[in-house]
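User: Let's play a game. I give you a shape written as tokens, and you guess the letters that built it. Ready? Here's round one.
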């Protein structure tokens, strides 16, 4: 269903909608005259009088109780000089290539912007994926791609990682000169499970307890959690590797920079209305922004009420719950993080369950396999095993929705006026499928955070009588570990 068929109906459902227009997104938030500030520029390009509040930095003299108080304050903070004794502080690309050479992983790659800017919105689906080992990827980052270099911060070249007798062989990866790569969001418990020595080495590499994560539960805010172990997450990227701006639905985040530098752009939850939140593409426990934050200069970030910080080796960033963040590697970079639970996560799990349920239902409706289509609520007697007929049902429903909304937007006062308005524009929409709403458009609207919040409240009201009647709440979803996702 890629073509327009006979020209008398919509060309078919859009399987994956294109990201929102980036220039228009920026202009709609900061005004057309300021959209240019989405492009990376010098500080002199910042609007006069606009400056962001710098992220607070604290030294290594803080006790665990003092760190806990910082966490409970709910503002981003950089801790300095507190992880120098971590074994993980030695994790350079060359060290990783030696210590975890055979650990299997999956990395994503994307072509670098030829203009040198980072103002392109890059979704995970836009990347190409390769199965690698940590050793393979480390060699690629150090300049072992199909020609070119990836930016190794003075690390030894690939030849220094392999002896002449046992040259390293591995997958054919994109050229490092033209692509960035990211081995991201890898749980220690999975990444280092292949060998017992890997698992033990990784388990002992980090200890978060010095940041007061155990004490914090005695005061309002973050709850306690253990200090080390398999819940840590690994991030290893070349220069230019990045994660689209988003916030995490659960917990707060501590991020330790072990090697290289990363640029973090942060926005508080109060800016949700300007961040153009979207759940398409859907990723569990992440709400993305459609804004091209990566290419924004300091003035544009400040104008939206955000701030930015460069994280260097030995520094730990505290990202409070629901703070938006865009992350970009300024050089070959290695970092680890851990999410810690908050008391408010229970409500967020309800909302996340609503999103997953709605998304699953809409995607089932969009599905094209006969077995699934046979279960859809189609018109009585319409299902006869004809997949194309069912796809036309879906297309017709989307067309009807498009025309109804268009009529309402024009202020049609009656059903007759609405029908006349729809009749007048139907031919144009049928001949131009791009004007018809897609399944992704529908899903975007249904999973907007404000809509999901209303639905979650209604569902909680329905559950309350069951709790008061003594019905066990075991049906409520238990906390789920965050799934593999980008930074």
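Assistant: Ready! My guess for every position:
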């Amino acid at each position: 269903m890629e073509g327009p068929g006979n020209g008398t109906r919509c060309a078919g459902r859009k399987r994956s909608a294109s990201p929102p227009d980036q220039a228009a997104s920026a202009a709609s938030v900061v005004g057309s005259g300021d959209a240019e500030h989405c492009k990376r520029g010098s500080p002199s390009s910042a609007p006069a009088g606009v400056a962001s509040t710098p992220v607070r930095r604290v030294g290594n003299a803080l006790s665990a109780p003092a760190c806990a108080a910082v966490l409970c304050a709910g503002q981003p903070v950089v801790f300095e000089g507190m992880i120098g004794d971590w074994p993980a502080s030695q994790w350079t690309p060359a060290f990783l290539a030696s210590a975890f050479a055979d650990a299997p992983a999956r990395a994503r790659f994307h072509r670098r912007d030829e203009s040198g800017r980072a103002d392109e919105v890059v979704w995970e689906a836009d990347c190409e994926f390769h199965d690698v080992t940590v050793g393979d990827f480390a060699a690629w980052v150090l300049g072992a791609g199909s020609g070119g270099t990836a930016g190794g911060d003075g690390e030894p070249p690939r030849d220094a990682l392999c002896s002449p007798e046992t040259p390293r062989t591995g997958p054919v990866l994109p050229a490092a000169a033209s692509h960035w790569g990211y081995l991201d969001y890898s749980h220690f418990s999975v990444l280092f499970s292949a060998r017992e020595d890997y698992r033990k080495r990784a388990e002992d590499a980090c200890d978060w307890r010095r940041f007061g994560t155990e004490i914090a539960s005695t005061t309002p805010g973050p709850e306690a959690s253990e200090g080390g172990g398999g819940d840590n997450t690994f991030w290893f990227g070349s220069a230019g590797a990045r994660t689209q701006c988003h916030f995490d639905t659960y917990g707060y985040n501590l991020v330790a920079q072990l090697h290289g530098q990363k640029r973090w752009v942060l926005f508080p939850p109060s800016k949700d209305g300007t961040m153009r939140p979207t759940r398409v593409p859907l990723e569990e426990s992440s709400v993305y922004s459609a804004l091209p934050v990566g290419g924004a200069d300091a003035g544009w970030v400040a104008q939206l009420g955000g701030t930015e910080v460069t994280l260097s080796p030995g520094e730990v960033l505290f990202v409070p719950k629901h703070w938006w963040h865009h992350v970009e590697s300024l050089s070959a970079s290695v970092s680890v993080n851990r999410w810690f639970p908050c008391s408010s996560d229970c409500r967020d799990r309800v909302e996340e369950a609503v999103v997953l349920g709605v998304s699953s239902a809409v995607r089932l409706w969009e599905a094209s396999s006969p077995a699934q289509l046979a279960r859809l609520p189609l018109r009585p007697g319409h299902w006869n095993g004809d997949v194309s007929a069912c796809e036309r049902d879906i297309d017709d429903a989307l067309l009807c929705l498009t025309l109804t909304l268009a009529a309402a937007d024009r202020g049609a006062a009656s059903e007759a006026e609405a029908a006349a308005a729809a009749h007048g524009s139907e031919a144009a929409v049928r001949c131009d499928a791009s004007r018809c709403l897609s399944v992704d458009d529908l899903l975007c609207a249904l999973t907007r955070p404000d809509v999901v919040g209303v639905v979650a409240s209604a569902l909680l009201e329905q559950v309350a009588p069951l709790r008061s009647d003594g019905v066990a709440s075991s049906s409520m979803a238990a906390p789920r570990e965050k799934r593999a996702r980008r930074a």
